[in-house]
Structure formats: C-alpha cells, structure tokens
Design brief:
By secondary structure, the protein is of the alpha+beta class. It has a domain at 11-101. Helices cover 47% and strands 16% of the residues. The protein has three helices and four strands. The chain has helices at 15-42, 47-61, 66-85, and strands at residues 10-12, 108-111, 114-119, 122-129. Strands 1-4-3-2 form a four-stranded antiparallel sheet. The protein is globular, with a radius of gyration of 16 Å.
C-alpha cells in the first residue's frame, strides 16, 4: 500500500543558501505556470504525454534538474485533477505562491542530521528543526 506523508519542517539556511532556495522556488513556480498553460490549452492530463510536450522546455527555459521537471509536471496535473474532481469548470490554474514539491531521496534527504535538498545550483545541506519527525 502506498502512503503519502506530508511534513512541514523549519529550516535554517544561511543567507547564501536562502537566495539559492528563493531562486529555486521561483523557477519551480514559473515552470508550473508554463505547464499549466499547456494543460489548459490541450486538456492533456497524461503524465507521459505531458512529459514529451514539456520536459525539454522545463530543463532549458527554467534550468530545472531532471527530478524537479518531473515534479512540476506531477504538481500541475494534480492541481487540474483536483479542480476537475471538485466539479469546478475548466480554468487556467495559476501558481502564485512559492512552491516546491519534494520527493524523498530524489529532491531531499536527511544526511548527518542536515536537510539535504536539491536546488538549481545542486544540493545544499541546511540545518533544520526535527520536531514532529520522531519515529
């Protein structure tokens, strides 16, 4: 049985790490909006087909790493499916707030007590508050 766990943690990046994270969140949000336009125009919600339509664009225009590009596609598909399943009319989904959906052991992990996260500039290791993550 697959289980999804959502965790909200507090991280303590340095000023330089914070800038890298802001740039990553901004690129991710912009990429989500680009994929949203494609889905809105084509009504395609199949991940494989959207991958073929958008992956190269995401990698080149937004400098996203491979897993980030995949996550963008999944994030936007999920938003449109939610819209559809809740009975809302087909409308362009816009991403306004910073967002970055992370995949365990691909986008992030815990290494030697530090939160290791993928960014546009590679992985950074950030101290974090583990409260609420106890087994």
């Amino acid at each position: 049985m697959d289980m999804t766990l959502t965790a909200k943690i507090k991280i303590y990046p340095t000023a330089e790490q914070a800038e890298v994270l802001k740039a990553t969140l901004s690129a991710y949000r912009q990429a989500c909006n680009a994929v949203s336009v494609v889905i809105f125009d084509t009504k395609v919600l199949a991940q494989a087909k959207l991958h073929d339509m958008t992956y190269r664009l995401l990698r080149s225009n937004y400098a996203l790493r491979s897993q980030m590009a995949q996550s963008v596609i999944k994030t936007v598909i999920a938003r449109y499916r939610s819209l559809k399943s809740n009975g809302h009319e087909w409308t362009l989904v816009r991403f306004k707030k910073p967002e970055y959906d992370l995949v365990w052991n691909r986008d992030y992990s815990i290494v030697q007590g530090l939160f290791s996260v993928n960014t546009l500039e590679g992985r950074i290791k950030v101290s974090f508050e583990p409260k609420g993550m106890e087994p």
